[in-house]
């Protein structure tokens, strides 16, 4: 069997760690996996990217590295999100091409779709209108990955493709209150709130109305799907990797599920003076379901419980 050397950029992050976990359970003799973070190479820099590819000589790349953040971090840093991600993506794809990498799987996101759209969104709608103003820097940089993939195919006959995950959560997430996504952000808040005593007078404040709806995928479920894409999915066209539409949950449901997982005894309050972001961004996973009709996702409550347990046991090493 053909030997594959698979380089995972962003290998130290939430999704990279989940892939490492799944690969360790499902090892294939012909696959060698390399997980790298920013300490090993600064992918904003072309020379540093070239040295990384020279060192490991990958045949395949799962490209996860990106400047990533939640709503409030994006709103304040659209220029940085645009420039850093443009540089990272151009350096990785071009260096992969120069080194004859056979396949690259890059990562888009359901939050880069047009703000004004019909629902559910699907893979054909990425470029149909401007993204939500809160994260246009990140969104345009990500959209150009899809443009580049098509251009690499057309001009150089490369199979460089992309996946579109919905919101991801799980062990090894970023729990820093200034840059985290909603689930790890709320987990950190709850943890801090009850570490000195879990009493009924504690108030758990959730920013926004609690009404927006989101689809959340557990990082370990997503990791399994990414392995399938790497091994079996051979089209340049992006594919949405999301839970089913019926599994969409409100932010208030997220807050309640977290409070239950922490056994929080106080009160949940919604600060409606804070921004809500997009009301919903429901994505259709019917393309994925056509390939994998039997795929079972971990129930939301169970995945939250596992993540909370991980965070409690690993608070000292978590990205706080
Ligand atoms: P994390 O923030 O957990 O990890 C980001 C990774 O990128 C880290 O390994 C980090 O390295 C690396 N990185 C960042 N900047 C650089 C750089 N300049 N050079 C080299 N490496 C760099 O991200 P996630 O795992 O959450 O996200 C992975 C991918 O999935 C991203 O492309 C993101 O856009 C996409 N995505 C994420 C979603 C989510 O909800 N989390 C939803 C949809 C898509 P280090 O930590 O060592 O600095």
UniProtKB/TrEMBL annotation:
PANTHER family hit by this protein: GDP-L-FUCOSE SYNTHASE
InterPro entries referenced in this protein's UniProt entry, alphabetically: Epimerase_deHydtase, GDP_fucose/colitose_synth, NAD(P)-bd_dom_sf
GO molecular-function terms, A-Z: GDP-L-fucose synthase activity; isomerase activity
Positions of the NAD-dependent epimerase/dehydratase domain: 6-237
Keyword Hydrolase: no
Domain of life, per lineage: Eukaryota
Pathway stated in the Swiss-Prot or TrEMBL entry: Nucleotide-sugar biosynthesis; GDP-L-fucose biosynthesis via de novo pathway; GDP-L-fucose from GDP-alpha-D-mannose: step 2/2
One of the GO biological process terms: 'de novo' GDP-L-fucose biosynthetic process
Oxidoreductase keyword on record: yes
Protein name per UniProt: GDP-L-fucose synthase
Record family assignment: Belongs to the NAD(P)-dependent epimerase/dehydratase family. Fucose synthase subfamily.
Enzyme class: oxidoreductase
EC number(s) per entry: 1.1.1.271
Function per UniProt: Catalyzes the two-step NADP-dependent conversion of GDP-4-dehydro-6-deoxy-D-mannose to GDP-fucose, involving an epimerase and a reductase reaction.
Entry-linked Gene3D superfamilies: NAD(P)-binding Rossmann-like Domain, UDP-galactose 4-epimerase, domain 1
Keywords attached to this entry: Isomerase, NADP, Oxidoreductase
A Pfam family: Epimerase
């Amino acid at each position: 069997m053909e030997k594959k050397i698979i380089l995972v950029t962003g290998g130290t992050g939430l999704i990279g760690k989940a892939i490492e976990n799944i690969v360790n359970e499902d090892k294939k003799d012909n696959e060698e996996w390399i997980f790298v973070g920013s300490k090993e190479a600064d992918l904003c820099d072309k020379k540093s990217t070239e040295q990384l590819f020279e060192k490991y000589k990958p045949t395949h790349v799962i490209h996860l590295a990106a400047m990533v953040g939640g709503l409030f971090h994006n709103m304040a840093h659209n220029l940085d999100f645009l420039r850093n991600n443009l540089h990272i993506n151009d350096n990785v794809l071009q260096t992969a091409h120069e080194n004859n990498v056979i396949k690259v799987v890059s990562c888009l996101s359901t939050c880069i779709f047009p703000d004004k759209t019909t629902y559910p969104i699907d893979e054909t709608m990425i470029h149909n209108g401007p993204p939500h103003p809160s994260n246009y820097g990140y969104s345009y940089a990500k959209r150009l990955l899809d443009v580049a993939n098509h251009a690499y195919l057309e001009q150089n006959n490369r199979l460089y493709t992309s996946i579109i995950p919905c919101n991801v959560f799980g062990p090894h997430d970023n729990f820093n209150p200034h840059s985290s996504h909603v689930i790890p952000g709320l987990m950190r808040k709850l943890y801090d709130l009850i570490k000195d005593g879990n009493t009924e007078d504690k108030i758990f404040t959730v920013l926004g109305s609690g009404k927006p709806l989101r689809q959340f995928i557990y990082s370990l479920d997503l990791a399994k799907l990414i392995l399938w894409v790497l091994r079996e999915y051979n089209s340049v066209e992006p594919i949405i990797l999301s839970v089913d539409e019926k599994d969409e949950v409100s932010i208030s449901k997220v807050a309640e599920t977290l409070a239950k997982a922490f056994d929080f005894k106080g009160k949940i309050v919604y600060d409606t003076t804070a921004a809500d972001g997009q009301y919903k961004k429901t994505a259709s996973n019917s393309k994925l379901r056509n390939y994998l009709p039997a795929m079972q996702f971990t129930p939301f409550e169970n995945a939250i419980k596992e993540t909370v347990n991980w965070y409690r046991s690993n608070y000292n090493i978590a990205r706080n």
